Amino acid sequence: MSEKNMREIVLGKFHEIFGPEGDIRTYFAPGRVNLIGEHTDYNGGHVFPCALTVGTYAAARKRTDRKLRFYSVNFEHLGVIESSLDDMRPLADKGWTGYPKGVVWAFEKRGMKLSSGFDFVVYGDIPNGSGLSSSAAIEVLTGEAVRDLYGFENATNQDLALIGQDSENNYNGMNCGIMDQFASAMGKKDSAVFLNTADLSFEYVPIVLEGKKIIITNTNKKHKLTDSQYNARRSACEAALAELQTVVDIKALGELSAEEFEKYKGAIKDPDRQRKAKHAVYENIRTLEAVKALKAGELERFGKLMNESHVSLRDDYDVTGIELDTLAEEAWKCPGVIGSRMTGGGFGGCTVSIVEDGAVENFMKQVGEGYRKRIGYPASFYVVEIGGGPCRLD
Ligand code: GLA
pTM to 2 decimals? Predict the structure, then answer.
């Protein structure tokens, strides 16, 4: 749906639920897809995501009292969920409102106290739970709205990313890295963000895919255990780092070259944990190489590294599962596919593929049929475009 339509829907719903009077403002924040560099962002490595033109929209208005009232067009059956600035305890049963509330909590923690509550209606066109960061989009969206409504101009877009991550880690219990919030808050049209998560230095790299499309394929997998599995992977990397630190002076796995890892890996006693660390180290190296290849116009090489990334996530990091593996493996068999891999946290969610224009139709048919045959239900396909960061719409 177009931006205009999305804005009209979210504003119309706001009028219906909370009334049309007063200073109602509308905002947008994008979802993201990561091209390469998976599970490296909490290991001081590099990532290469881009913001999408799909994302989450909000209509918001300040209140005169301390209430916070939330409504999602994506979860209409939940109705209005009410909270208060005087009760910012994280409550698991508040569902999706943990995301905007966590952002308010993180603003206040940084001394930016809200002078009153607000009413908030959101509507997203990112498929929920697809691994395209609908949660980061809501966090950055809330940050954009709160900054604008309450005049916190000193908060930069990078701060919005850090606030989003803080709220996700410490309010919502998901120990994610910085990638998703950074990609959403700092996105730039037609560019990917080449981010060094060790120090947050970054560079925009134009994505010029002449005659090719970025296709996202959703596994539509129903049950996900992402949070607990994700946190377990992160702990394994931390344990491996602690073991390595007994033999080499490093602060993060992302500092190691392949040669150094091979030299010191014996310090990681558990073979399974050693494979996890291996992924973190080699995926970072792949990401550096992939960006270099892209800059040199070597798209084939970029695609090959995407495929290798998937194999490593499947065999070493163990975060793919039969659904994502089927999508990637079917894609690799199709003509005109430059590269294909899982994107995001894994355990379900989506793959990202770069496909030649003339091969797109066959890709959807062939991968779709192969997937349905093996998994028993259909996958969904989206041809996506790279968009900009968050903004006020009116
Ligand atoms: C999720 C997290 C990110 C990142 C990816 C894996 O999307 O939110 O921080 O760790 O998984 O690369």
Answer: 0.97
